[in-house]
Amino acid sequence: MSGEGGDDWATLDELLGMEAMAAQLATGGGIGRLAFYGRCSTEDNQDPATSKAWQMGEAARFVEPLGGEIVAEFFDIGQSRSLPWERRTEAGEVLRALKNPERGWDGLVVGEATRCWFSNQFSLTWPKFDRYGVSLWIPSLGGRFDPENTVHDMAMTITGGLSKSERQHVQRRVRAAMAAQVLIDGRYQGGRAPYGYVVTDGGPHPHPRKAQEGQRLKVLLIDEFAAAVVRRIFDLYLDGWGRKAIAECLNREGVPCPSAHMPRQNRHRRMDGWQHSTIAAILENPRYTGYAVYGRWQKVEELLDADDVAAGYVVRFRRSPQAKIVRSRQPAHPAIVSVETFTAAELERRKRKAGGKVGWSSVDRRRVSKKRVYRLRGRIKCGICARKMEGAARRGDTIYYRCNARTLVPGSAMATAHPQQIYLREDLITPPIHRWIGSLFDPMHRDDTITALLDADDSGDEQLEHVERLQDRVAAAEVVMKKLRKALDAGWDPVELRAQYNAAVAEKRAAETALAAAPSEKRLSREELEGYVDQLGNVAKALDWAEPQELSELYASLRLSLTYHHVEQIVEVEVDPLADRVDKYRVRGGT
């Protein structure tokens, strides 16, 4: 049968989907509507508007000749490339939009791959695009990413490695340059000035280009009021005072703590008085001697979840090894205490610390098994200090949760407003919570609750996707094996094809083995869930008789949190299983 245009293969090509992209381009249809994704580098502090403009320009120049049209834009600002896509703001929006069939675009284009994917991130994100039929257009590949093209797969693997190498190279270069500036010139490297100093203008920047741009050098000068407090802290410590005693003395005398003295540079602090940790930080800071010190703390990336490497890393601050700490050769700013005074304080600090360790090392330790389960452990906060209340058993087996003012800094505003002890009985608050949970399954709310539970049940989705990926691997391996067999029939040398065929057979066997071992997940039906609810009967009574460990797990799944206001005798209860909800219960005799 011949087509109207004289092309005998037109109808068959349409039915088989052969050369679909070439046919689309030949007719002028183009590659369709695309979304753009980019990211502003956090390493070179590039202007976000400039960065977005050139990445957007690169993407547009790449897809417009192919008939592509960018209809949506996603651009992350100030987020490291080491963060996985799920934890980036705009990249996470892209992944969520994949599940929306009304998103308005069928492909994603990037301006520069190294800014978007880091290390092995591409291998973890591409399957999600493939799952929802969304194509990826990458300029460095010269077109659309083809998962069956080994060159494309190798190129993206190398791209992730180059991105990681570039980031690490920039970090090492910047840190080495800053260390050299401190060592040679004693240059101030920014950040919050230590308590006792203020940052002031130090003249034109020594770098000619930065000086032409109007940047100024920053130096440290003494804040006389705070410097006197720092000297007094060192004197008291050398006279035998402890850190807590010094903090209590300063609070009783009304001396403003560092965050209260300079609130503009301490917006993240609570300004609730001197803490013993603040005294320790001052006693351990060698910059009070007038010398610049760099590298005492370093950023360390730790796995967010040791059982899930794909979740990425989080940044923590840790003390640096002594080999990485750099001190200027000459004084860099006015000194508050002498080197001799600081050395004496450091020796005293180490002496006290060593004595404490000797005392503790002589104590015979042994593991004590837990006899009680505190159902609300870690879930109750004090309404005054916002600290978690600790569980304790009193008067037999009665369980209380208490907040002890003894651990607050004496003389602080928080300690003044806080009673010496606040107690809350567990058995006064669990029955109202159980009645509220039970009300969700009464005849009035039963259908809505079951519907919400069914809508939230996605336990089978991940397993289904895993099985589908394994099935795709088996099918792809069979296609390769079929093509190689045809090549053998056509007269190709078997020696040249043997390695490819054996690799395809091994891939198929591995996928089939994983498929056979995959557990079968079955989603609960509405009838089965209704049957379970009917078996429970009165849910509130069932919870009252449940084991403490089971209740603790239930509270965790509900994300239960409580705040106790002892003056009003009210417990504020919040749960967040699917949506936020807050209730309040009055408690009599809780304190």
Description:
With 591 residues, the protein is an alpha/beta fold. The protein has four domains: 31-167, Rossmann fold; 197-292 and 328-359, Hect, E3 ligase catalytic domain fold, CATH 3.90.1750.20; 380-452 and 531-586, no CATH class; 460-522. Helices cover 45% and strands 16% of the residues. It has 21 helices and 18 strands. The strands form six sheets. It has a five-stranded mixed β-sheet with strand order 2-1-3-4-5, with helices on both faces. A hairpin with a 4-residue loop joins strand 16 (561-565) and strand 17 (570-575). The model is unreliable at 20-29 and 359-369 (pLDDT under 50).
Please, what is the average pLDDT? 80
Number of helices: 21
Would you state the CATH class of the largest domain? Alpha Beta
CATH architecture classification of the largest domain = 3-Layer(aba) Sandwich
Rg from Cα:
33 Å
Low-pLDDT runs:
20-29, 359-369
Largest sheet: 5 strands, mixed
Q: In terms of structural class, how would the helical and strand content be classed?
A: alpha/beta
**What count of domains describes the coordinates?**
4
CATH superfamily of the largest domain: Resolvase, N-terminal catalytic domain
Distance between the termini: 91 Å
Please list the strands of the largest sheet in the order they lie side by side: 2-1-3-4-5
The CATH topology of the largest domain turns out to be: Rossmann fold
Quote the beta fraction.
15-25%
Report the count of strand segments.
Answer: 18
Shape: flat
Helix content: 40-55%
